[in-house]
């Protein structure tokens, strides 16, 4: 690697050279032949150049969620509720897998940046045995815990049955998700964005193609219902994993280095795991609150998150893409460009999310009918979509501030904002508003985002004052 391909990134407060690497949620993801690209190019042009690949990857992930729900909703209403209940567990699984991958990715990027390829491959070699161990542990816990989790979330025997069936399949056979996450991060650490993108596209297409075949038993196949949806999901994940395996697999190093290297991996990866896990627990908390009203209320919230994953693609891409730009300029002392990147992303994000606000407030009924014909779900969801749509604008600021602090190495502030939003505000406010009635529950969303934004502004002003 020559000097032209090297960048200096801030990783948890440390300046680390990283070239030809991937930056995802705080780590380099883009090759550039110009080491001053992030420091001299117009900010809006940088974001327009690097955002499309990220948006494509997130669109693919959104399709996974939407397609499963679309076909399951046509098959049974109880299955749709089951998907909403399982969703937090799937988020937790992704948090563990991706967070571990981020730790490996960051460690490899560091050693590739200082030209120690042997050490980088050592961390890559630990990835496969480590992720297999995580998969076995997660699968075993979920298999035995699933019935209790289902009964905790609903009283409906039909929904409980669907939760157990779907949950056990997607969790016990999640080997594809775990290995694909690790091998993808290994490839990205070496600057290979193409192979993971192909893997995600093919995996999504396989899932989409198999869903109707397995769920409805087309072309002579057995009619498997919600189990078919789960099987289609894990097959798609396994196919994606097989595509990245050839380039992503690394030979395991001696066992003697495992304890030290695993500690370093999780030193880098745990903040990411904790932040993503926080979302798991707040959605679980909201599900439990809504379950006191009806299964239809839980379904309505689940359908919101399905649509949210689609409408939040531009915002998610902005979150990912501004991190290397801010990190680069902060490390080089260009605070004006850091502020410009923040302001550009806030204005652009609000403009994009205003479209989401309009859609959620103008056609909520039509959006819900894509997945369900249950009049109670549609009635509850229509009210809910109005309120969550209003929350989209302040949500931009609450989420952009979070990644700003991550980019400048202020991990404590970033983590605090996540905890404030997901644990301190969402669930307690959801409980308090729900005591006034189901319709009042939806006030939780705009109030939480406004309060999180105010905390973010307070942290930002204190941070900028310290830079003078």
Question: What do these coordinates show?
Answer:
With 468 residues, the chain is mainly α. It has a two-stranded antiparallel sheet. The protein starts with 5 loop residues before the first strand and ends with a helix. The N terminus is likely disordered.
Relevant terms:
single chain, 468 residues, mainly alpha, two-stranded antiparallel sheet, 18 helices, 2 strands, 3% strand, disordered N terminus, antiporter activity
Describe the secondary-structure layout.
Layout: E1 6-11, E2 14-19, H1 37-40, H2 43-75, H3 77-113, H4 117-153, H5 157-172, H6 175-189, H7 194-216, H8 226-248, H9 258-291, H10 295-311, H11 313-331, H12 335-362, H13 364-369, H14 375-390, H15 392-407, H16 411-434, H17 438-441, H18 444-467
Antiparallel strand pairs: 1-2
Helix pairs in contact: 2-3, 2-7, 2-8, 2-10, 2-11, 3-4, 3-5, 3-6, 3-9, 3-10, 4-5, 4-6, 4-9, 5-8, 6-8, 7-8, 9-10, 9-16, 10-14, 11-12, 11-15, 12-14, 12-15, 15-16, 15-18, 16-18
Strand order of the largest sheet: 1-2
Strand content: under 5%
Q: What overall form do the CA principal axes indicate? A: globular
Give me the Rg, rounded.
Answer: 22 Å
The number of helical runs is 18
- What about the largest sheet? 2 strands, antiparallel
Name the structural class.
mainly alpha
* Helix share, percent: over 70%
> pLDDT below 50 for ≥5 consecutive residues: which ranges?
1-35
Overall structural domain count: 1
């Amino acid at each position: 690697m020559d000097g032209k391909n090297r960048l200096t990134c801030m990783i948890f407060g440390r300046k680390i050279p990283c070239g030809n690497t991937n930056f995802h949620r705080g780590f380099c993801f883009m090759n550039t032949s110009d080491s001053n690209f992030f420091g001299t190019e117009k900010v809006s042009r940088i974001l327009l150049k690097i955002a499309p690949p990220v948006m494509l990857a997130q669109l693919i992930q959104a399709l996974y969620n939407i397609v499963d729900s679309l076909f399951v909703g046509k098959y049974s209403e109880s299955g749709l509720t089951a998907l909403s209940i399982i969703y937090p567990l799937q988020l937790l699984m992704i948090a563990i897998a991706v967070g571990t991958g981020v730790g490996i990715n960051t460690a490899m990027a560091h050693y590739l940046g200082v030209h120690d390829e042997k050490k980088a491959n050592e961390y890559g070699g630990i990835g496969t045995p480590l992720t297999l161990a995580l998969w076995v542990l997660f699968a075993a816990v979920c298999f035995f815990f699933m019935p209790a989790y289902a009964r905790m979330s609903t009283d409906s025997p039909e929904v409980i049955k669907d939760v157990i069936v779907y949950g056990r399949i997607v969790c016990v056979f999640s080997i594809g998700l775990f290995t694909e996450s690790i091998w993808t991060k290994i490839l990205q650490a070496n600057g290979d964005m193409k192979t993971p993108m192909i893997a995600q596209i093919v995996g999504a297409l396989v899932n989409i193609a198999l869903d109707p075949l397995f769920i409805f038993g087309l072309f002579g196949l057995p009619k498997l219902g919600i189990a078919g949806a789960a099987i289609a999901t894990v097959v798609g994940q396994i196919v994606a994993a097989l595509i990245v395996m050839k380039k992503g697999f690394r030979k395991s190093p001696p066992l003697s280095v495992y304890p030290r290297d695993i500690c370093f991996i999780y030193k880098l990866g745990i903040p990411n795991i904790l932040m993503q896990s926080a979302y798991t627990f707040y959605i679980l908390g909201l599900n439990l609150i809504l379950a006191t009203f009806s299964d239809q209320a839980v379904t309505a919230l689940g359908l919101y998150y399905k649509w949210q994953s689609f409408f939040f693609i531009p915002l998610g891409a902005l979150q990912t893409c501004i991190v290397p730009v801010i990190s680069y300029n902060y490390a080089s002392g260009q605070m004006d460009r850091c502020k410009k990147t923040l302001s550009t992303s806030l204005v652009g994000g609000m403009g994009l999310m205003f479209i989401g606000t309009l859609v959620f407030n103008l056609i909520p009924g039509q959006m819900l009918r894509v997945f369900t014909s249950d009049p109670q779900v549609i009635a509850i969801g229509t009210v809910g979509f109005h309120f969550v749509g209003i929350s989209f604008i302040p949500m931009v600021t609450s989420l952009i501030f979070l990644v700003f602090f991550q980019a400048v190495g202020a991990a404590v502030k970033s983590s605090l904002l996540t905890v404030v939003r997901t644990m301190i505000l969402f669930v307690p406010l959801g409980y308090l508003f729900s005591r006034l009635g189901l319709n009042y529950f939806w006030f939780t969303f705009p109030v939480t985002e406004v309060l999180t934004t105010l905390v973010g502004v307070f942290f930002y002003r204190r941070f900028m004052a310290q830079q003078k």
